[in-house]
Fold:
Amino acid sequence: MGPKPFIDLGGEVIVNAAVKVDKSSKLITVKTGEQFGYDKLVFATGSVPVIPKFIPGHELQNVFYIKKSYPYIHNLTSKIAALRNIVVVGGGFIDADAVILAIGYLANSRLAKETGLELNRYGDIHVDNYGRTTVKDISAVGDCAQTFGFLTGRSDNIKLASTATAEARTLGHNIFGIRIKKCISATLGVFSTEVNGLAMAGAGANESSAEEANVEFISAKFSSPDRHPGTLKGTSNLTVKLYASPLDGSILGGEAWGGKSVGEIINIISMAIQKSITVYELVSFQIGTHPLLTSSPVNNPIIRAAEEIIHKIMHNQKARSHGTEPKQLADKEF
Ligand SMILES: Cc1cc2nc3c(=O)[nH]c(=O)nc-3n(C[C@H](O)[C@H](O)[C@H](O)COP(=O)(O)OP(=O)(O)OC[C@H]3O[C@@H](n4cnc5c(N)ncnc54)[C@H](O)[C@@H]3O)c2cc1C
Structure:
């Protein structure tokens, strides 16, 4: 994002590397030696790729990391263009021309530590719901700042651009005093990607994260074409899987896969999780449909997956009222 909107508002942009922060005199020293004073300071130093220093050869030529640097990625692309055998780590025991390690990111928080800011066990800068660190007038947002799990409230380390911008927006509103209350108390984690034309997305709890956190859930999935009729050109099959609490039916998580509509379908599910919408409310979820744009009004996969969960909850209640342990109902294929 360019700095123009900031400059238009009267801001001045200085491109340099901050090497030292003196929090008592409120002075920043940059690489070229100049010093700048501040009233409020925001750490947005991002993250750096995990480098597995315990693996011999992690620094060999043709071992690459996915660094957030255009020249580095450009160089990587041109270097591997002529190579045939490329290992993406996780690919097993294979004799290669180049290795690409993409095994996660850690907060770029060395300067924050040297400044005396508190870090959590992942090395992320400790912040409150408004992005404020433990030091007065210093805040942190984005990949370098800590996040908390949406369901568990446990220390988490979600590093996403969507999360970073939400944090930056709320900090912008609250940096000179809390104006919008209870901004980001926990981070949901909404992911989407596309591989070979298949879009895939997830929000909140899924099977493994819910089991790991010992969260009870009922899940159901529903598939339907994302146009109607499904014979229309450009139609993809859209599948939605929802996870809900078996007690009150509130949506805990969701997954979606199929065509490009997945990118926004997961954002609807994210809203449902954030607002604790239940499967019972989704039955009357008011939607707009159009043959060329959406699934059929009778087969909206979010609503139909919610209905499947209601069916499963009722099935379980019925079995228990008869004194039997309910049998797990399999997902129906539609
Ligand atoms: C390959 C890849 C794909 C991704 N895809 C997605 C996606 O599809 N969706 C999504 O939501 N997220 C995605 N992400 C994650 C996303 O890029 C990050 O969450 C986001 O960039 C975080 O923004 P940030 O501003 O916190 O940090 P960064 O983007 O890391 O920016 C930090 C900046 O601070 C600068 N800096 C660091 N130290 C100093 C210093 N001492 N002085 C001055 N400047 C300093 C750095 O040079 C950098 O410009 C992806 C990441 C990668 C690597």
About this structure: The longest helix spans residues 301-321. The radius of gyration is 24 Å. The pocket of flavin-adenine dinucleotide is lined by residues 17-18, 44-47, 66, 68, 108, 111, 142-143, 159-162, 164 (CB under 6 Å).
